[in-house]
Amino acid sequence: xxxTTTRTTRRSRMLAAVxxxxxxxxxxxxASGDTDPxxxxxxxxxxxxxxxxxxxxxxxxxxxxxxxxxSAIAVxxxxxxxxxxxxxxxxxxxxxxxxxxxxxxxxxxxxxxxVRFDPPNPEAMCTMDFRLHGxxxxxxxxxxxxxxxxxxxxxxxxxxxxIEVELGPDDLLDAGPTADPQPSEIPDAGEAPAPEVIPADQxxxxxxxxxxxxxxxxxxxxxxxxxxxxxxxxxxxxACVPTPVGAVSSGxxxxxxxxxxxxxxxxxxxxxxxxxxxxxxxAVSATLPVxxxxxxxxxxxxxxxxxxxxDDVLExx
Length: 317
Known about the structure:
Elements: E1 3-8, H1 15-20, H2 37-40, E2 52-53, E3 73-79, E4 83-91, E5 100-107, E6 112-118, E7 130-138, E8 149-154, E9 161-167, E10 196-197, E11 210-212, E12 215-223, E13 227-234, E14 243-251, E15 254-260, E16 272-279, E17 290-295, E18 303-308
Parallel strand pairs: 6-8, 15-17
Antiparallel strand pairs: 1-9, 2-7, 3-4, 4-7, 5-6, 8-9, 10-16, 11-12, 12-13, 13-16, 14-15, 17-18
């Protein structure tokens, strides 16, 4: 993983801290800067070509941000020695809702790579979900892929902040599959345990329930990255309560939780809070917010989305 240091000239609002309170906060930023990379590069630095968006199939998992504290930005080699991959976590709306990289500048005397960013538009209409965005930045000329290269990330969240990353030869976007002469001996992930009912006395106050899509629904970590809890407010009639099925990670930053819809047609008007915990078949990164998509609990639509931050944890006894 690339090591990171930060230079600041005044106290800054780090993007990683913003990410922890929700992807929507990433819309906060500075006034828009000059988008001409040649106009902002230091003397001796040659600007590169315009960034090219990465195909979603090449985007890594959220663990790409593990160990990063300064920002929700990661850098990898796309093609060693020739192009960088810049990964940004933020609102699924993308565009003006997230920081946008300019072309990669290169000072061949170091060599040192510089990537400047355009800040988000604080007036943009952005969605509350969280996903990864990526670009490939081709260098003005190839450099030695076996060297450890300093990369300066400029204006990621504040005009007076530069984040320095050291990019090594093993920091690859596409590591590729590992050859295995006996792949049949690799055990499958296996099935996750069945959902467990959370006792009523451990569910906490009803105020913990968020309103998702007009429904009293909440999601919280029990064991971050491994076990998720879903709380639901519904009728006290058992037949009117959906039945939990399971949970699985369906992509970077997304967990799908499935319920069988309730079958009852005559339901009391009382309000009862129910809770279940779901263990994922494989652990996922909980360093940044994840989107929990819950299906089968509402007549209002096919699914409900809830964003779960790293510190949204339900303490069970």
